[in-house]
Amino acid sequence: MSGNWQLEIFGTGDAAEIDHVKNFVSNHQLEKHVIIRGWVAKPFDNLECDYLVLTSEYEGLPMVLIEAQQHGIACISANCPTGPDDIITLASGYLYEPGDIDQLSGILQRCIDAPTVSFDPRKIRALSSRFAEGNYFENVERSLNMINTSNRKG
Q1: DSSP 61-113
Q2: Is there a contact between 7 and 33 (Cβ–Cβ < 8 Å)?
Q3: What CA–CA distance (Å, rounded) separates 83 from 135?
Q4: Which of 5, 53, 68, 136 has the fewest other C-beta atoms within 10 Å?
Q5: φ, ψ for residue 23, nearest 5 deg
Q6: pLDDT tens, N- to C-terminus, the chain (154 residues)
Q7: How much is the pTM?
Q8: Is 75 exposed, middle or buried (0-12, 13-18, 19+ CB in 10 A)?
């Protein structure tokens, strides 16, 4: 990546994984760009960022994407089998194919090159409301009623 950027990494792993990341950062002289935060109880409380990046190969329901959107943060995520494409829209972020590092790099570089092209935090927050507890249960009930109605017709 070229340009003005900073990556903050939140979360933990086993010692070998953490050492691998630290060695990668060191070997590629990325210390001025990468900060490893580790586990943080409430990462969104004092976080100021343009994007949240999720590189998972599998997620059930990636709550971190929903939480980021509730804070008006655009998301970049691997389009793993379940979750991200239900959450991220054209108005709230980008999806890339899992494992496609070139595609992810291209998205990240575009974000660095054009920082003024941004997503509207108010729209992102509004999009996340469909995952609010009350809305979620209404959607489940509506879906179950639709299934029940279609079964009666068949």
Answers
A1: S-HHHHHHHHTT-EEEEE--SSSHHHH--TTTEEEE-TT-HHHHHHHHHHHHH
A2: yes
A3: 17
A4: 136
A5: -65, -40
A6: 889 999 999 988 899 999 999 999 999 999 999 999 999 999 998 888 999 999 999 888 899 999 999 999 999 999 999 899 999 999 999 999 999 999 999 999 999 998 767 799 999 999 998 887 776 677 778 788 888 777 776 5
A7: 0.82
A8: buried
Contact between 39 and 17 under an 8 Å Cβ cutoff? The reply is: no
DSSP letters, 127-153, are HHGGGSHHHHHHHHHHHHHHHHHHHHH
Report helix angle 121-128 to 63-70, nearest 10.
130
Give dist(CA 112, CA 120) in Å, integer. 17
For residue 154, the model assigns a pLDDT of: 59
Residue 70 φ then ψ, to 5°: -60, -25
Q: What are the backbone dihedrals phi and psi of residue 94, each rounded to the nearest 5 degrees, phi first? A: -130, 145
Q: Do residues 62 and 128 lie in contact, with contact meaning Cβ atoms separated by under 8 Å?
A: no
